[in-house]
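for the writeup, i need someone to sanity check this before i put it in the appendix. the sequnce is what the collaborator sent (i think, or maybe the updated version? ugh). structure was predicted straight from it, no edits. if anything looks off just tell me and ill rerun, i have time this weekend
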Amino acid sequence: MSKRRLEGEQTKKHIINKAKILFAQKGYAGTSIEDICAAAECSKGSIYYHFKNKEELFLYLAEQTFKESWEQWEKISSQCESVTEKLYGFDDYFVSTLQRPLNKAGEEFISRVGADSEIGQKFFAIMNNFMKDFEKLVSKGISKGEFKKEDPKELAFIILSFYSGLSDSYLFMDKEAMKRLFQKGTTLLLQGISNSKET
């Protein structure tokens, strides 16, 4: 990689890192290109060289966040033998890496751009890729006889929605208390989907 290209990639990463902090702090609508320029100490030209507009920047950020998160999770989960263990590991990882304010910015992003817009569909495609990865995990649990024979897509959606709902607990407790809550929630969840009487 040439020096110029390397510097360009470093600038892009720097912009994304600063934008990520701002979107989490101020929300999608509350963060302007000017804000990102000030935080990244760069010109608008630098941002527009890498991204068409703020929408494209946020979309790239979302894609990178989901991709890096799943890759990190796969490294952790490779140490677990059963899918049941992986699910317990996932709830701990979910809390440890929880970025609720950024998730809220994603919800705001969709409400702004519209779910049926081209960029809205791209955003949902990113989320669907994450869902498919989690669906594979659930399918493995079913095929190994750990989970009941349910529709893996529906079951994956139920589990992730369950964790998403529990994540609102960040308003009322610290992360250690949240981890205990998620562990208990996972135990109760597994009692419902487990293929055996014991979890």
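The chain is about 75% helix and 0% strand. The CA atoms of residues 12 and 50 lie 7 Å apart.
thx in advance!!
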